[in-house]
Amino acid sequence: MFSLLVRRSGMIDPPQMSETDAHCHILPGLDDGASCLETSLAIAHLLTAMGVRRVVATPHVMSDVYPTPSEKIREAAAALQGEFRARGIPLEILPAAEYYAEQAFLERIKKGDVLFWGDERYVLFETPLEQEPRALEEIVFRLRVSGYTPLLAHVERYRFAQKDAKFERLGHLRRLGARFQVNHPSFHLPKTSRRGELARKLYIRGWADVLGTDIHKAKMSDSELAHRGDKRLFARLADRP
Ligand SMILES: [Fe+2]
What's the gap in Å between 122 CA and the centre of ligand 1? Predict the structure, then answer.
């Protein structure tokens, strides 16, 4: 598990990134993440420089903008894995998705058409940032009874979670069987950031079950990377909105 260091200021030393990146938009051309193979390879270099060995490829899946079939995601992941192999990039890709919490997602669950990963059979999904959707509990319930572990994406970004000062709502979701994914770059945000504060609190409570980068673009070249340590690199990644 992660080691924990709390400083006098109340800030924690950010934990190391895990060997598995559970949330990444690395597949080319499927969503607002990597637009081409070159960007996917640049993201792969970023990840390996962070010590990531396994990346869960999680393109957005939402009915109106990205209605991507599961098969297309599997094929894209296999193709990118081939590119990594050909170039000697030591990164394993697992095909998955970041599902949007909507009716179409419930229908996918009913049909058994969801991409999951790991022994826990994690299924990553997101909700609108500003308002908790009414179907949230139903989604968690449906995933659980279908044999999956509901994994709520970047919990620290949601307004409803930031306002949940006593962790009652989040605790309820956990009791229903939900688990939380936290974006690693959020740990580097300042104390004034609600997102950063919630990420750290979740981590201290042991509720940051799975870490991800949620990288969409690679901003740095290899030579820039070579001159940066993890800390500065993560600080740059945390710049994204
Ligand atoms: Fe994402």
Answer: 15
Is residue 127 a contact partner of residue 156, using CB atoms and an 8 Å limit? no
Count of domains in the chain? 1
**Distance from residue 9's CA to the centre of ligand 1 (Å):** 30
Q: What is the pLDDT of residues 1-21, one digit of tens each?
A: 444 555 555 577 888 999 999
Ligand 1 centre to CA of 98 (Å) is 6
26: nearest Cα among 75, 74, 93: 93
Residue 151 belongs to a domain: yes
- 210 within 8 A of 22, measured Cβ to Cβ: yes
Identify whether 80 is part of a domain.
yes
pLDDT of residue 202: 97
* Full residue range of the structural domain in which residue 110 is found: 20-237
Q: What is the distance in A from the centroid of ligand 1 to the CA of 180? A: 13
Tell how far the Cα of 64 is from the centroid of ligand 1, in angstroms.
Answer: 17
Q: What is the CATH number of the domain that holds 133?
A: 3.20.20.140
